[in-house]
Amino acid sequence: WKVGDCSKGLCLRHWKRFGLVFSCLEPKGGEVFLGRVLWDTQGWYVLGAFGSKQPVKGRLSIGASTASIKWPTGAQWAQEQEEWDLASPLDQRQVRSALIVFMLVILPCVFFRAYRLLVANILLLCCTLVHVVLAFRIMPWCSTLSPPGAKGAYLWVLCIVGVSSITAANATLAAWIALNCWSAVLGHMYLACMTLSTLCSLVYGSWARAAESWANSQNPEEWVGVVKIPFSHNEHARVVQVFNSACDQWQHMYPFSLEVVEVFSISNLFQNARFMESHGRLASGLNVTQLFHGCSASSAKAISTNGFRSPARVLGRAISFSETPLKSWQYTAKTGASYVLVCDVALGLAKSVAEEKVLFSRDGLQAAFGGAAVESDSLLGLRHEDGGALRVPSRQLLRPEQALPTFLIRVKEKHVELGQQRA
């Protein structure tokens, strides 16, 4: 940013994060500019001030390679740049303190053999835990929840290098401990287990990535019960209108928009029968609402064919839906897919939830739904304005039969300036 003698490099994508705090030092005046990115009903803005002056509100507008802040006085800060300076100098005091602490911890190893073995075992345990997390959590996540292209390949290579490095550290520590206190057989068994787990994680990650790529390359018309709706059909226009209306309602909250490419209808007699049977188990009324669900291509295929299933590790055991496709698209985009599901959801007796820990923990969800004897049929996560913890309302279901997928929409993401509405 060039504002008089004040110069500061910022990355545009960081500006799109709600609540970002940034600072800028002006050498001549010695004043420090502090600001925070926020939003209101009119769009995104920056609340900032120089030094001890009163904070003022400036409207924020961001394009693909440009950014500007317009202040109430008429002044405008602007920057146009292709390359963004992401480098930030390290705090030398923190580095020195970390080195001193590390030396104090390692120093007794020079004099005490038992202490060396203790430190080596602790490091071996930590390396093993990191290896397990990298191998069986991070690597499969990078293989299936990363966008295609250079960024996805970079994450994949980074995970392979990380697992290999941790494996090498484990091998070195295990060999050293084996020479001092372990038997050779035990050391060899440990190294064999670590090597085998690394190979298993690589095979699993590669298989998951290949399966996801194959599902995303398929034509949805090849899936059971999925039929493409022609562009000239009235049903196509109706679905697109509903989709765009749901996007327009929350467009000011997101720095991108969605464009409908294709619309497919989903018809499955088994799912319809299961959906109708679930109505008799609802606590109060049907309360059927059309909501959106984002997922990977393989999950979209499975849902279209066999319906929803309760996930084991997502929001406890709840299935999440959104009132806007923009929120659902954030889950889809992570997988590199391009589909959003439109579902008829029987909410029944909906219970409002304000605390974030209830929405994102198994115990909280079970307590909110009423435990074994379900007192409510669905949960509604409230927005900040309504006393909740979410930016956009979210719905959760425990019973998968309460949701019926009706349409599969292929969409395309388009970046827009923050605060810009759909024309």
Characteristics of this structure?
extended; 5-stranded antiparallel sheet; disordered N terminus; PARP catalytic domain-containing protein; Phosphoenolpyruvate Carboxykinase, domain 3; transmembrane helix; 3 domains; NAD+ poly-ADP-ribosyltransferase activity; transmembrane; membrane
Give a short synopsis of this structure.
The chain has helices spanning 12-15, 92-106, 113-144, 150-180, 184-217, 234-250, 269-278, 297-306, 325-333, 356-359, 362-369, and strands spanning 2-3, 6-7, 21-25, 32-40, 43-50, 56-62, 66-70, 76-80, 226-228, 256-266, 288-294, 319-322, 339-346, 350-353, 378-381, 394-397, 403-415.
Q: How would you portray this structure in words?
A:
The structure is a single chain. The protein is of the alpha+beta class. It folds into three domains: 79 residues, no CATH class; 126 residues, no CATH class; 195 residues, Alpha-Beta Complex (Phosphoenolpyruvate Carboxykinase, domain 3). Helix content is 41%, strand content 24%. It has eleven helices and 17 strands. The strands form four sheets. It has a six-stranded antiparallel sheet, with no helix packed on it. Strand 6 and strand 7 form a beta hairpin. Helix 3 runs parallel beside helix 5 and helix 4 runs antiparallel to helix 5. The N terminus is likely disordered. It comes from Alexandrium andersonii.
